[in-house]
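Session log. Operator J.P. requested a structure for one protein chain; no other inputs attached. Running the standard single-chain path with token output.
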Amino acid sequence: MKSLHFSRCFAAVLLFAACGCAERIDSFEEYLEVAWRHEREGDQQGAISGYRQALQLDAAQPVAWYDLGVLYEATGQTELAIDAWTQALTHDPSYSQALVNRGNLLAQHNRRELALADFSRAIELAPTDFAPRRNRADLHRDLGNFPEALNDFAEALLINPRDVETWFERGMLRMELRDWERARWDFEQATALNPENSLAWLNLSQMLTWLGHVDEAEKTFRRAVELDPQLANQRPQTFPPRPGEGAKSADPVAATGFPQRTDQAP
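Structure written below.
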């Protein structure tokens, strides 16, 4: 599950005189510009301080709460991040991005029913956004709700058929469900969209092995090892696992610049 981080437009607020000395700061906008400047300089703690000072002057600013939450998450302060996104939602209940991010952290801390509610609400608010559907699919899988997970993965891919992670994660679920042929399809889509995704090549090699395509599996495995030599000791198993021995999901490499495809998933 991925949090959503978005760039912002910078306000044209002059904070420093020509001599480089700071001018007096006494408004929300000026403290916000201080926070943005610290972010540009990579000073996360300084940015957090700027946001907090700005919000002391005007707490009814959902975007500022959202951005503060992103910084809290980046610095490992997860409870403060959850609180910040809750504040953003208090002032703007339709803030779907805050719902997705809060849901991700709630899921990571095993507050899964609350996370499920956040993802479901985000889907209602932004039905054309694939991210909450993909994240809800991951959560349904973790909860053992496999039909619901497959449905959400399918819906996410209808919205954005170019997202490598969705293809990869659905392939992992289908592999757990011992649906080798459809899992093969998903990993093929992931490798077509991002040929540098070593994990997708490795799992595709495993599916080809269990489907009896030994030569093709060996070529695919070699491709995975070329991309990541550390995978050399993870040669595909000759025999599939017994029922109940599902594979564990892992985050794939993000991809950009995907080729156009015209085929459809089964």
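Operator note: The CA atoms of residues 8 and 36 lie 9 Å apart.
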